């Protein structure tokens, strides 16, 4: 998969999954724009991703929840590169709490960044993406879109991202722009490393492949959806979760049995 003539914007890409995505696209030949909240972190990420190749990497501070900041980002991209082919909406936050204790501010912060931020970036990137011969919008959702304890805000935001993605896939097909989502499961990042070891073990025990995912696992999926090989795929949600979202009872039973035939019963 080669992207020698493509320009990509990756939001939330100064670290973690976003940085792995930016690195992957850069390594495949794309010109990459790193966008994140803090300019110092953005500049450091650009140095690490692009090394000495400053012609193919640029970084801009952007708060995706702020309409003016998003407008400024895509104005800067247009002035610097005159085009945009790939938009990856990765920026996201968590503010976990049980629903009964969740404050309005916790709710609003997550919705503003994860859902409204994705909408704003899609909206202001579209005038450039629609002109690309291979326009791609890839939104990072989550398997938590199906619901997760303590994450009413996050789950709602990611379910919204999936709905937005599927709507865009219908509306933008006339422009030959595809819109897809990648839904990570339990990924080894700074965020999940902060989870207590006992809780991490509970999560990993739910994963049939027996390990946490890596940012590179997500980056590979994004690279494929951004490629020419995915030109006939749109409106899809690719779950990259090691099988975690399979019916848990079936998966757990199969694991406990050692994978033997007849280890599960059918009603």
A few lines on this structure:
The chain has 267 residues and is an alpha/beta fold.
- The total of helices stands at 9
Total separate domains: 1
User: Runs with pLDDT <50, length 5+?
Assistant: 261-267
Oligomer: single chain
N-to-C CA distance:
45 Å
Indicate the CATH topology: Rossmann fold
| Secondary-structure element string | EHEHEHEHEHEHHHEH
Helix content: 40-55%
Spatial extent as radius of gyration: 19 Å
CATH superfamily: NAD(P)-binding Rossmann-like Domain
Q: Whole-number average pLDDT?
A: 92
Beta-strand fraction estimate: 5-15%
Give your account of this protein's structure.
The chain has a single domain (about 5-195, about 215-245), classed as Rossmann fold. Helix content is about 45%, strand content about 15%. It is globular and about 50 Å long. Helix 2 links the parallel strand 2 (about 30-35) and strand 3. The chain is of the alpha/beta class. The N and C termini lie far apart (about 45 Å). Helix 3 packs parallel to helix 4. The protein has nine helices and seven strands. The chain has a seven-stranded parallel β-sheet, sandwiched between helices.
Descriptors:
alpha/beta; globular; disordered C terminus; 45% helix; Rossmann fold; seven-stranded parallel β-sheet; single chain; 9 helices; 267 residues; 13% strand
Topology overview:
Blueprint: E1 7-11, H1 16-27, E2 31-36, H2 39-50, E3 57-61, H3 67-81, E4 86-89, H4 104-129, E5 136-140, H5 152-171, E6 178-184, H6 190-193, H7 197-205, H8 215-226, E7 237-240, H9 248-256
Parallel strand pairs: 1-2, 1-4, 2-3, 4-5, 5-6, 6-7
Helix pairs in contact: 1-8, 3-4, 4-5
């Amino acid at each position: 998969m080669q992207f020698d003539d493509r320009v990509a914007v990756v939001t939330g890409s100064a670290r973690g999954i976003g940085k792995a995505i930016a690195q992957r696209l850069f390594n495949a030949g794309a010109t990459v724009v790193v966008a994140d909240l803090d300019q110092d972190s953005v500049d450091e990420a650009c140095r690490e991703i692009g090394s000495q190749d400053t012609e193919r990497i640029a970084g801009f501070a952007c708060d995706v929840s702020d309409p003016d900041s998003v407008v400024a980002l895509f104005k800067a991209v247009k002035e610097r590169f005159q085009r945009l082919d790939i938009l990856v909406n990765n920026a996201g936050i968590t503010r976990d709490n049980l629903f009964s204790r969740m404050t309005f501010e916790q709710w609003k912060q997550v919705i503003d960044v994860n859902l409204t931020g994705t909408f704003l970036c899609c909206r202001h990137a579209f005038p450039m993406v629609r002109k690309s011969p291979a326009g791609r919008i890839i939104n990072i959702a989550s398997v938590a879109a199906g619901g997760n304890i303590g994450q009413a805000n996050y789950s709602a935001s990611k379910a919204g991202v999936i709905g937005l993605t599927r709507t865009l896939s219908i509306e933008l097909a006339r422009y030959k722009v595809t819109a897809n989502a990648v839904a990570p499961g339990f990924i080894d990042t700074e965020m999940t490393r902060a989870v207590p070891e006992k809780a991490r073990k509970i999560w990993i025990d739910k994963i049939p492949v027996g390990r946490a995912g890596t940012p590179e696992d997500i980056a590979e999926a994004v690279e494929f959806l951004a490629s020419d090989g995915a030109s006939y795929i749109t409106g899809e949600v690719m779950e990259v979760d090691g099988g975690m979202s399979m019916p848990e009872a079936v998966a757990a039973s199969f694991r406990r049995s050692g994978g033997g035939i007849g280890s599960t019963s059918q009603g």
